[in-house]
Amino acid sequence: MLELSDGARLTTAIVLLTVVGIESGGFFLLRVGTGRVPATDFQRMFFRAGHAHAGVLVTLGLVCVVLAEAATALTGFWHWLGATGVLVAAILLPGGFFFSAMGAGRTEPNGFRILFPAGAAFLGAGVVTLAVGMLLS
């Protein structure tokens, strides 16, 4: 049996609970898709992308936590980045899609688009750190 540190166990438990939020996002998306919530084509596209990124990145992020615990000797900041960088991206990237599309009749992203490069940076840094940690262990 894989033993997780207390921090990893707490992180994974919290992240698993966020799946309920992703599920409610799916319900919202269903309401948008059936016309119950008015949205522009741009908003529908961004809402779908935000929901998809949330689900995929949370799943990948959980895998990264387990791999950082089980398959690396990373410590300190590097362990944190390898274990949770993707999870930080799982907040920033979907947030960028949803928040930048908010507002009645919006047809282009607002200032929350700044979350995209921040999320991409955490995603890249997290997976590269984890991969290097695995290769060096």
Automatic annotation (TrEMBL):
According to UniProt, the name of this protein is Integral membrane protein
For this UniProt entry, which segments traverse the membrane?
12-30, 51-71, 77-102, 114-136
Superkingdom assignment = Bacteria
Q: Which UniProt keywords apply?
A: Membrane, Transmembrane, Transmembrane helix
